[in-house]
Amino acid sequence: MSFRQEVSKYAYSAVAVIMALVIGGILIWASGYSVRDAYTNLFMGAFGGTYSLATTVLMATPLLFTGLSVAFAFQCGLFNVGAEGQLYAGAFTSAIVALALSPLPSVLRVTIALLAGAGAGALVGFLPGYLKAKLGAHEVITTIMLNYIAILFTTFLTKTYFKDPGPVDQTVLLPLGSRLPELISGTRVSLGVILGIVIVAFLNHVMRRTVLGYEIEVVGQNPRAAEYGGVNVSLRTVQAMMISGAVAGLAGSVEVLGTLYRFIPHFSPGYGFTGIAVAVIAGSNLWAVIPAALLFGALQSGGQTMQLFARIPMELMTTVQGLVILFVAAPALGNIILRLKNRAQEGGAQK
Amino acid sequence: MSELIDIIFNINNLTATIRMAVPIALAAMGGAFSERSGVVNIGLEGMMLTGAFTGVIACQISGSPWVGVLFAVIGGGLIAAIHAVLTVGLRANHVVAGVGINILASGTTTWLMQVIWKRKGTSDLVTGLGTWSIPVLRDIPVIGTVLGTHSPLVYISFTLIILGWVLMFKTPLGLRIRMTGEHPEAADTVGINVRAIRYFCVILSGCLAGLGGGYLSLAWLNWFSKDMSAGRGYMALAACIFGGWNPLKGLAASFLFSFTDAIQMRMQTSELRIATELVQMIPYILTILILAGAVVRSRPPAALGEHYESGQTSQ
């Protein structure tokens, strides 16, 4: 994509956000609230001061990972709707590993817990990748089914084997040494957000400078041509889904190790699905995941302030998010649509 | 062990299965129509939720649950029209648009619920549809217990599903729909309006999912609650695939899924301490096995998810 196209694409994303906020404003007005009051609180809650900014970053952190996960799968022409399930696998595994390794030094413990979470996510990503590559089973459906399986199975394991003695179904609290260190003290913003940015940089490097990345991109753009050119399409498909799953798994790990300090069944308010929105806005540029995640984090943290001070239910921000997706979905998706279409054609050729 | 057998082979499970299968089977038929025409519809969840919401609003305003049912259908159809415009008209990616529809519906219904009823979890109570007890049928032993007394929507839905099957497989329109999803170029060549067929099918899918939602809020319960579709739209998608994009087989799949759900619910209230989550996983595992071709092979329409412009040469 030329620089000019790139700029116009982001300009359109900005327009989409503004249109969504305008419709949100109309809804606020029609319900008899003050629009000015609402949006002042929204803005101040998202950006007005250190605490607000910290909350925005806190809310953006899981979306940074899930958004990157979905965006990376897009590179290979794959649609990972399963980030939510991979996140649960990562979150649960990290919690259990971090608890089990208590004798080890803190740095080692947290590192292993993170790796274990990524591994669990990769494993949940492997299955749809394999089914797609070998049997042509569409990854959208298999990942949706795996979301439910992962959520139910981690709930089952927590209730049956790892339950905190208290009345609530959750694991015990992680000891201090098993947690990700705080980045800004007094908030729950952890080193996780730095890890997220490092992984964005790393995967960007993989895409631009390695054979793996190059071949994933070729498969994403035209799987049939890739096959003729000697690329092992099945292998690259499975690898892309595993990397995507690993990153989504880390979203869960970072939530558990850095924010919640324990695994709680059903803790995610749909981070995996919002990650799809983040990835759609970011498009084919992995770096763009960072501002896109911050935008959705800002809507969440600003929404909380709006609810608290203007007494407007914050679910309105969910509506705004949905509208952003629908507006961005239509014209600006050219690149991704092309890839998915090529991918679908290849599926057609196999039959 | 004998207690487990009691739980599984309890006749009330069958009655509950019938009751719980309805919203899933309706939305699954919606999914079958949409996907047979070539449009992926993972927005069924949001369409069902919207129907549940508009149904309760209309019922409260009019005082009549039947007006509620009508508006549940209309509400689902309207939000499906958004999906149709995006995917058919604007060539948006079908999955992205579906995800957007689901998030939009979840946020907007929860928000409006709080604005209208000033409560966080549920709406006001509205007049329900009551039940029909079918003479003769209700007096037959066993069958009468299972089928004899249900919400009117149960009987209406089963009739609609049979009609839907007839429409899809026994009428010229049904043939055109299937052709549009299999080979839009060929359909176009013989004079079928591909876009019109797709618009019709997507909106019909929303109407059916919306009716399923209305069933939840007007027949099963008598109120709207936050995110009350609770994944049934996704479950319907699974039933649609499991049933090979066929309304009747989709109904059978919904029965199977609902049966596991009925057992799971009975387990929760029993003395047995079995984790119900494992039972709840069964439908999803079955669907993956089906897609992997491990049980029976089920093939999606060939042009599913592809855009088509009239006059466009083979892609």
Output the keywords.
heterodimer, A: 351 residues, mainly alpha, ABC transporter involved in vitamin B12 uptake, BtuC, 0% strand, globular, B: 315 residues, two-stranded antiparallel ribbon, 69% helix
Structure commentary:
The complex is a heterodimer of chains A (351) and B (315). Chain A is an all-alpha fold. Chain A has one domain (3-350): ABC transporter involved in vitamin B12 uptake, BtuC (Orthogonal Bundle), CATH 1.10.3470. Chain A has helices spanning 3-30, 35-47, 50-75, 83-100, 106-135, 139-161, 192-209, 211-221, 223-228, 233-260, 271-282, 289-310, 315-329, 334-350. The model of chain A is unreliable at 332-338 (pLDDT under 50). Chain B has one domain: ABC transporter involved in vitamin B12 uptake, BtuC (Orthogonal Bundle), CATH 1.10.3470. Chain B is built from 14 helices and two strands, in the order H-H-H-H-H-E-H-E-H-H-H-H-H-H-H-H. In chain B, helix 3 crosses helix 10 (194-220). Chain B is globular, with a radius of gyration of 20 Å. In chain B, 54% of the residues are buried. The model of chain B has no long low-confidence stretch (mean pLDDT 89). At the A-B interface, helix 5, helix 6, helix 11, helix 13 and helix 14 of A face helix 5, helix 11, helix 13 and helix 14 of B.
- Write down the domain tally of chain A: 1
Average pLDDT confidence of chain B is: 89
Q: Specify the helix fraction band of chain A.
A: over 70%
Q: How would you sum up the major sheet of chain A? A: none
| Quaternary structure type | heterodimer
How many individual β-strands of chain A? 0
